[in-house]
Design goal:
The chain has two domains: about 1-175, Ribosomal Protein S5, domain 2 (2-Layer Sandwich), CATH 3.30.230.10; about 200-515, P-loop containing nucleotide triphosphate hydrolases (Rossmann fold), CATH 3.40.50. About 40% of the residues lie in helices and about 15% in strands. The chain has 23 helices and 18 strands. It has a five-stranded parallel beta sheet. It has a four-stranded mixed beta sheet with strand order 1-2-4-3. A three-stranded parallel beta sheet has the order 5-8-9. α6 (about 150-155) links the parallel β8 and β9. It starts with a strand and ends in an 8-residue tail after the last helix.
Length: about 525
Amino acid sequence: MFAKIKCAGLFGVHGFLAETEADSGSGIPGLYLTGALSQETREAQYRVSTAAKNSGIPLKPEKVTVNLSPASRRKEGTAFDLSILMAVLRAQGVLVEKNYPAAGEALFQTHAFLGELGLDGGLKPVRGILPMADALREAGIKALVVPRENAEEALLVPGLAVLPAASIRELLAFFQSERLPYAGRPPEPVSEEPAGGPDFSEIRGQSYLKRAAEIAVSGRHNILFSGAAGSGKTMIAKRMAGIMPPLSRKEQIELTKVYSACGLLEAKLPLIKNRPFRAPHHGSTAAALLGGGNPVRPGELSLASKGILFLDELPLFRREVIEALREPLEERKVVLTRLRGVYEFPADCMIAAACNNCPCGFFPDRERCRCTPAQIRMYQGRLSRPILERIDICAEARPVRFSDIRGEGQEESSETIRARVEAVCQRQRFRFRQEERIRYNSEMTPKELDRFCRLGGEQERFIRQVFEKKGLSARTFHKVLRVARTIADMEEAAEIKTAHLAEAVQLRSFEDRLWGGAGYGG
């Protein structure tokens, strides 16, 4: 007898429709699996037979051939267990409408099954339910059967009914009833304020770095903080996510899919509601940052999407790791080519990096810095010019004064700054309302720069002098224009003024001091 069950697989952070086909007949008894399977997927033959026996429904001693299609897609993980069991029970004539009234042919045409089987017959949660459920909905599936722990996550997909079950016995009991107990769908969440966390009001002084951070967040510009150790670079970076606008529902779902594919969601609170802040150690590998492994999973760049990826002590990261950021910083996505296919992960995050000016952290204060010129050049040289050109803002921390630390004045809170940032973001949304792929000033291409960053005669002469004096590359010149556009938006100015350009240039000036005025062409 032949049976077919709908299911889904996971490829990177995207789900795809799959089918489990089973045929039971004469031959050497056993369960034979085919269809480009990983080792953990192939081991389902042992989990399925044992789980069925311990659930009181031992399989008949027949030859059962199970194929997972499409064969062109490699099947990884344990989410196929439940669909394999359902297909086998249907093929052996166990799960028929006569014994289970709700389990008619119509149900298996519209329902898909996902879940890992425990040897005791229990259903265990699996990763990637959200992207797989979304792929099933797009393929026309009406309902999804999942382990109870995955129900809240599956319910995030609109228009898809969810039937949660804790075990095989419970699921079969559902099929014996006249009406299936689908899970109730929670109400759509209202847009929320970011959760409480570190606040900008806790930082005394460093108004220059705070201003740079606000500009960076307002236009979604990558930023590098430089300066002496202990000057507040890390403290400011950790608070930047708190001044970003709240995530929209669409952004929440996109981000949750990434975390779902990595198995990092909480069962009862699966929806990611706040912008992430990720801070990988400088010893991280390229695979940890960009993604990779076996199976291939997203890295820190993708986990920080819609939020902040903070790279502290940037020069201490391995050179090949830093250089691997070049394309993702430009394209806002990670593309990994492997033998099994091409994986594409989102990298739509802000990069906030921090570095000292020398190994000891006190340069250019020669009274405290004991590093030799060669050591300083070697340390600073770990940041290549192409990488620096992909960072819009490079702000150097000022020395911290005692009066700043012990001052009694009230510093601005994150809530106050966030209100200004949201106003600037609103102006950008209005400006780019007819542009499908552009939301922030940092994403403007040369075409949009010509349209939205037109300069007057005075501004044109000023930026020409800067370009020729500093030997800027075209990429750096465009980044100066983007930052200047954001500064103008913060001041509600329709046109970019000379002061806006001057501040944008100033926000890269520390490079001149670090590298002796070297240009960044090439």
